[in-house]
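2 proteins. here.
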Amino acid sequence: MTQSESTPQRPALRMGLIGLGSMGRHHARVIRETPGMDLVAVADPGGDKFGVARDLPVLPDVHALIDAGLDAAMVAVPTIYHEDVALALAEAGVHTMVEKPIAHTAEAGQRVADAFAAAGLVGAVGYVERCNPALLEMRRRIADGELGEVYQIATSRQGPFPGRISDVGVVKDLATHDVDLTAWLAQSPYESVSAQVTHRSGREHEDMVVAVGRLANGIIVNHMVNWLSPRKERQTVVTGEKGALVADTVAGDLTFYANGTVATQWDAVATFRGVSEGDSIRYAINKREPLRVEQENFRDTIHGTNTPTTTAVSMAEGVHTLTVVEALLDSAREANAVRV
């Protein structure tokens, strides 16, 4: 049993949850299932349409939630309310994880990050893809040098439109996952980006984006994200000098495609001086629910028992991700590459 799976030898964290919608209902379940956490209060001004409160009263706002006496809180309200709710929790001295993105703008996100840093509190952002088993194993193998030098990271995140999203477009909703996980896998921030977006569903916000960029360490990246595909796809491909790792984060599978080492006798092919196809391996990996791993990481970060691989996503990282996606939108609007 790993440290994150064991019960900490200390009182359970008194947890509050605000926002009982499509994501909040899952957080309620996972918090109740996580050792070392005790869900003591929930709040949502819109009520509890999924019936997740059980025997807890549904409180009207963040101030009523704070009055319940909390150690930590999970914020799962619409993005436009993240800043106000998080600032209230920081002022009350409550460790907090905010669902992604950290706020509706990078400027607002910086105010939130600054408030938690000034208060000496753990402030985290809920980028659950970092807890996907395929990506965790991918990052470990990259860090161990199994790909050698990394050349490129490419992501594809496509599927039907989610009716729950109304306040942001596909860039600030889905694409933030890809930006966050790419910088995390490469252990490098973004340096520049260029993007194209389109509006095809009649909504105010964009529903499709194609983006390219470069990280500070020289790795080139590209992201294809939309809400208009009838086929759901969540794929991350990291290509390096020794081959490529491909993560399917829907299934939690990770496959390695090695560069070929067998010399070819076919002259027409031999004149091509690139790599050839070698062996492929689909790894058998431990698959745990990412949302539960995310809450365990938040708990361990609060207690200071976390490791580099069990650390919650910091608010500073959340601000960087939001800065990058705003640069994507600026690039699409101005038809120019933008330095981050």
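next one coming up
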Amino acid sequence: MKKLDKKLHVGILGATGMVGQRFVTLLANHPWYEITVLAASPRSAGKTYEEAVGGRWKMTAPMPENVKNMIVEDVSKVEEVAAKADFFFSAVDMSKDEIRKIEEDYAKTETPVVSNNSAHRWTPDVPMVVPEINPEHFKVIEDQKKRLGTTRGFIAVKPNCSIQGYAPALAAWKEFEPYEVVVTTYQAISGAGKTFKDWPEMVENIIPFISGEEEKSEQEPLRIFGHIENGQIVKAQEPKITSQCIRVPVLDGHTAAVFVKFRKKPTKEQLIEKLRNFRGLPQEYDLPSAPKQFIQYLEEDNRPQVKLDVDYEHGMGVSIGRLREDSVYDWKFVGLAHNTLRGAAGGAVLCAELLTEEGYIQAK
């Protein structure tokens, strides 16, 4: 793990929303990073962070003292805000076109942006990374910098929260060549930026539609499993994935029920061994937010459960269980990941740590 001379200055774009709040809590005592600027919409600008958030604080942990009196900046004043940090996390709530533009505007000030948003996930030279699975995609940043005309500014993104409970398993099993996958995700309400207090109709309810989520669940793993060609990420052709995404009355934690066909026929013991031994650069570098054990396999028939397992490895690990042979597919299993930690802000913080360790993010 890197030893930094002093903490890097970090800013949060879209700091008042639910993911912005999660970034604030994760960075409050971070060993490498110190929050120096919080930016949000013009209606929040000029207020203290505590005033701007008001009664909309959605985290279970209290608001950190060190941000309460920080004056929120206007996110649209790019040059002014960018001057106050070495890099930014982005969780802005705008249209996709607006997000693409503002993130590029910040990058062009020579300030790296690590985004939680989906707007740049399919920009060909923007890496979309799960740090344990495809860190080599960060190499495309050099091509992106040429396009943007920057020397240190760039954008990197993390993928959708819905894929975190099954894409790591597919990555662990790569040598057995999974080629066809059926997945149904049961997604928590915090994925919509809600709590039960502000979404009472979700209590004792299931909604069988989450806008745009099924396409992300089917396509984003293929981009993660893809490769770089001529300065762009080219998505993998397999496995073919079909999905249904369902909103369920759970606060945090996306569960996935998954069926897989393999070209090579692994045993149950081989599959479990691959899950338990799967590790990547975050574990090798011992990054501050990295889970020691990325994937745990649970033997009990009734696991993983949200109440018991969502906070595994501080919400940064993935829990897999119920691996068994299937009568139509080869194997089936159930996966669980914390959607606002591993699946959102935490995953972005881990990306930033890896980018820092590898020298992409440095002090200005």
